[in-house]
Amino acid sequence: MTDEIIQVRHLNKKFGDKVVLTDINLTIPKNKVTVVLGPSGSGKSTLIRTFNGLESFDSGDLEIFGQKIDPHDKKAFAVIKHEIGMVFQSYDLFPNRTVMQNITLGPLKVQKRNEKEVLGQARQLLAEVGLEKFENYYPRQLSGGQKQRVAIVRALILNPKLMLFDEVTASLDPEMVRGVLEILKQLAEQDLTMVVVTHEMNFAKQVADKVIFLDSGEIVEEQAGQKFFQEPQTKRARVFLESMSF
Amino acid sequence: MSWIYIQQAIPAFINGFFLTLKLATIGIIGALLLGIVVAFWLYYQVIGHHVLRLYIAVSRNTPLLIQLFFIYYGLPGIGLKIPAEQTAILGLIFLGGSYMADAFLGGLEAVPKIQVESGQVVGLSTWQLARYVIFPQGILYSLPAIGANIIFLIKETSIFTVIAIPEITNTALDLIGQNYRSNEYLLMMVVSYAIILIPLSLGLSWFERRLRRVNFSN
Lengths: 246, 218
What we know:
Pfam family, one (chain B): BPD_transp_1
Shape of chain B: flat
Structural class of chain A: alpha/beta
Helix content of chain A: 25-40%
Transmembrane segments (chain B): 23-44, 64-82, 88-108, 129-154, 185-207
CATH class of chain A: Alpha Beta
Number of domains of chain B: 1
Helix content of chain B: over 70%
CATH class of chain B: Mainly Alpha
Number of helices of chain A: 8
CATH superfamily of chain B: MetI-like
Radius of gyration of chain B: 21 Å
Order of helices and strands of chain A: EEEHEEEHHHEHEHEEHH
Domain ABC transmembrane type-1 (chain B): 17-208
CATH topology of chain B: MetI-like fold
Order of helices and strands of chain B: HHHHHHHH
Membrane topology (chain B): Multi-pass membrane protein
Oligomer: heterodimer
Number of domains of chain A: 1
CATH superfamily of chain A: P-loop containing nucleotide triphosphate hydrolases
Radius of gyration of chain A: 18 Å
Number of strands of chain B: 0
Number of strands of chain A: 10
Strand content of chain B: under 5%
Structural class of chain B: mainly alpha
Largest sheet of chain A: 6 strands, mixed
Distance between the termini of chain A: 38 Å
Shape of chain A: globular
Number of helices of chain B: 8
CATH architecture of chain B: Orthogonal Bundle
Largest interface: A-B, 29 and 23 residues
CATH topology of chain A: Rossmann fold
Main location (chain B): membrane
């Protein structure tokens, strides 16, 4: 097995006539944190959504866990999709299910795991994110930050090989952001393979092993984390970093 | 207004009342089941969904009266003779199925796309997504329309009188014909429908409010 968990070659995608991703070539290293940066509308979310089949692509090659993905095969992700966790910007817990029911739905119904073992792991993960007392709460009874932490647990309990985070702090109040970012930092320290789309530059600087900088659907720079922040190689990246003024 | 006519007609109206209730209940349950199947069929655009669109168009744009005539008087022409009560239930299912399908479909389509994606990323299959995510949320959006359809279908049972089923309306018209006492029997007819419909209407509103309070908002 190579050290790359994802390999993308010459990937292109359009929404109708609008080109959203152009000739994307990248690799996602195993057990590392890859941060995807870029201005709004640059194709960051679309890019990571191709990694778990939420978006198809028009041409190019995508290889995940060594398996080549056929963009026209709707079942291409059937075997690997529960090995890829994802957390969205708007948390999107199932409102009709309690915290515990949200978390255990995947492991019980998809992975068909033992209920006792799943409940034990769920409680342990909830405790790790400080929500051990909330397992019987409904999403509407939680704050935004708490919901986002539940969403992270819901993804982690599937024991994914890869975690995708799509602007997970963008909908949160400033005081909630820190708690969620702390959890992401802890995950990064556990050598989980993570791809993180974020606008939190300080956080990105702290956790990124690798940065992919996108603009208008093209990769402008693909760089080791610290190097990107200290010596961006392109003018576009420098302007972007200055505009974020962190 | 003569009390004695009302008193004498009570047993007949009780029979009509329970017959109306029985036919409506079976018909509405059938319509709900048909509606769910049709709605999911259309939601997932399963092969043949155009035929179901045609069914909805025909069902919604023809009167129940004509549908009953077709089943009761038309089908025997091709050797299919269906008794009156079964005709009534079939007619109600045929009519109600399309209204219920539209109500359910509206609810399913109102479930935010991100909810479906959340289900997909935890690995749920299409069937599991429908069962655990889309249906439980969609039904909440559908409830007002489903409630209105139930009330509508119960009121439509009054048309069963054209195939001589002794439900509430038929009972009233029959007694008026026999005794020429319109006021008494029309009053009893109104009261009979009100006994079914007013509590049902209030109950549905309460149920809808309660479910919304419990389940909505993320």
